[in-house]
Amino acid sequence: VSAAGACPIEGAGRFSTFDVLGVEEPFPILRELAPHCSSAWSEAMGGFWYLTRYEDILEALRRPDVFSSEATFLPRTKHPVFGPEIPIHIDRPAHTEYRRIIAPHFAPQAVAAMEAPIRANARELLAPMIAAGGGEFVAAFAEPFPAASFLPLLGLDRADLDELITLLDEILLTAQLGPSEDDSRERRRDTAMRSLRDRINAILDARDLMSDPPEDIVTGLLRSRFADRPLSRDEILRMIRLFFAAGLDTIKHTLSMSMWFLATHPDHRRQLIEDPSSIPGATEELLRYFSTVTSYARLVTRDIEFAGAPMKAGDMVLLPIIAANRDAGRFAEPDVVDFARMPNPQLGYGAGPHRCAGSHLARLELRVALEEIHRLMPSYAMASGFEPVRTGGQVSGIPELPIVIGSPSAV
Ligand code: HEM
Q1: Which of 218, 221, 394, 403 has its CA at 20 to 30 Å from residue 21's CA atom?
Q2: Residue 267, class by beta-carbon neighbours within 10 Å (0-12 exposed, 13-18 middle, 19+ buried)?
Q3: Residue 39's closest CA among 323, 393, 326, 354?
Q4: CB-hemisphere CA count at 13 Å for 339?
Q5: What is the C-alpha to C-alpha distance for residues 155 and 176, in angstroms, rounded to an integer?
Q6: Is 342 helix (H, G, I), strand (E, B) or coil?
Q7: If DSSP codes are grouped into helix, strand and coil, which group holds residue 321?
Q8: Confidence of residue 4 (pLDDT cuts 50, 70, 90)
C-alpha cells in the first residue's frame, strides 16, 4: 500500500464511492479537494488513489498502458462467475480486436434502425401511467424501457423481462450497496449470475440448432472471428454479461435523475416541450450534470508520479467522472444546467479506448424517452412531500420517483 497522500483536507482519507450523495451535489469531498489537491489517497474500499480534476482524469482514461482496465471496480474483486467481462476488463492489444467485433452492432446506422421499435416501447410503457394519472416512474418506465429496448437484440422476448430485471437487481447489489460483512449480498449476486449464465447458455444452445437464425447481436457474435479463430462460447458469455451490466442500469438512472430534474425545474421542461430539437443537447447536459456513472477505477501498471500522487505498480486509482464533469476549470458555471451548452465535452460516456461502446444506442434511448414523455404527458410533477435520495456506488441514481400527471401544479 502506498503512503497516504499529502492532501490536508478533513475526510479525504476516508472517501468512498458508497458515501451518500446529494441528488445534485457530487460527492462534497471531491469539490472541496479540487482547488487544493489534484489527487488524494483514501483508506476506504481496500485503499486507492483518486483524482479530482478534468484534465488528469481525461489523461488517465487515455493512458491504458499505465492505467489498466484489469480491475475497474472498488473494492477490487475477482470477477465472479463469468470472469473478466469483454471488452471492459481487457487491455490492448486484445481489447482492440474485441471492440472491432462489437462495434458494428452499436454503430450509428445499426442503432438508427432500432428507433421505431424503441419508440413503440416508450409509448406502450407510458400509456398505463398516463391512464392512471401518475405512478412510480422508475418501476413503470425507467427500468423496463431500456430492458424492453435492448433485450430483443439478444433473442429475449418481453415475457422474460420481469425475471431478467429481478436478476439484474440482484447482480448489481454489491455494486450499488458495497460489500456485505456476512457475504450475503455476494452470495445473492453469485446465485443470480449463475442463473443469468444459464439463460445466456440456453440462448446460445438454441441458436446452434437453428437453420435460419435471426440477424441479431447473438448471431453476429456466433459468426465473428477473433483474428483467425471463431469466438469461444466463454468469450460470448462474457460479452453478453457485460451488455446486461452496462446497458440497462445506466439508462434507468440517467432517466430517473433527468425526470426528477425536469419535474422540479419547470423552465427547463418548458424548453423541451416548446422546442423538441433541444432534447439531444438536454440529454448530454443532464448526463454531465448528474454523471450516472460516477467513476471508474483502474489498476496502476508501473510506478509513476501522476497528478501529484506517487503511485506504485499494483495500486488502484479511482477516476471520478462526476468530478471531471463539474470541474470549473473545464466548464463555465459547472453547476448550472444549460441545455444549449456548446461545446459540451462531458465525460459521462468515459473517454479513451474504453469509451462507452453503446453511446449511440444510449443517446437514442434517452432522446426517444424524453420526446415521448413530453409529447404524451407534458404536465407532470413529483408527488407532494417527496424527498429524493440518490444511491452511491459507481452507477448511481434515484431508486423511486412517484409522479402525478396532469395535476394543477404541474406545468
Ligand atoms: C446513459 C447510459 C450510459 C452511460 C452513462 C454509459 C457509460 C459508460 C462508461 C463511462 C464507460 C467506460 C468504462 C471504462 O472506461 O472503464 C462505458 C463502457 C461501455 N458501455 Fe456504456 N454507458 C451507457 C449505456 C450503454 C449502453 C446502452 C450500452 C449497450 C450495451 C453500453 C455498453 C458499453 C460497453 C460494451 C462498454 C465497454 C467498452 C470498452 O470497454 O471498450 N453502454 N459506458
Answers
A1: 403
A2: exposed
A3: 323
A4: 20
A5: 28
A6: coil
A7: helix
A8: very low
159 or 222, which is more confident: 222
User: Separation of 384 CA from ligand 1 center, angstroms?
Assistant: 35
* Nearest atom in ligand 1 to 239's CA: 35
Amino acid at 144: P
The answer to whether residues 300 and 312 touch, using CB atoms and an 8 Å cutoff, is yes
Query: Which of 12, 34, 8, 25 is closest to 329 using CA atoms?
Result: 34
Q: How far apart, in Å, do the first and last CA atoms of the chain sit?
A: 54
Q: How far apart are alpha carbons 406 and 2 in whole angstroms?
A: 56
Cell readout for 103 is 462495434
Distance in angstroms (rounded) separating the CA atoms of residues 86 and 127:
37
Residue 21 pLDDT more than 60?
Answer: yes
Determine how β-strand 39-42 pairs with β-strand 296-300: unpaired
Strand partners of residue 333: none
Residue 2's pLDDT is what? Answer: 37
Atom of ligand 1 nearest to the CA of 88: 40
pLDDT at residue 374 is higher than 90: yes
Q: How far is CA 1 from CA 166, 313, 315, in A?
A: 38, 10, 7
| Position 106 pLDDT exceeds 90 | yes
- What local confidence, expressed as pLDDT, does residue 407 receive? 60
Beta strand 48-51 with 316-319 is parallel
Res 1 pLDDT > 70: no
Residue to mutate, 57, 91, 346, 359, ligand 1, most ligand atoms under 8 Å from C-beta = 359
CA atoms of 55 and 38, how far apart (whole Å): 10
Is residue 282 very low, low, confident or very high in pLDDT (cuts 50, 70, 90)?
A: very high
Residue 303 pLDDT exceeds 70: yes
Pull the grid cell for residue 227: 483474428
* Confidence category of residue 376, pLDDT binned at 50, 70, 90: very high
Which residue owns the Cα nearest ligand 1 atom 35?
A: 357
Asked whether the CA dihedral 146, 147, 148, 149 is positive or negative, the reply is: positive
Average pLDDT value for residue range 325-351: 97
CB 42 within 8 A of CB 30: no
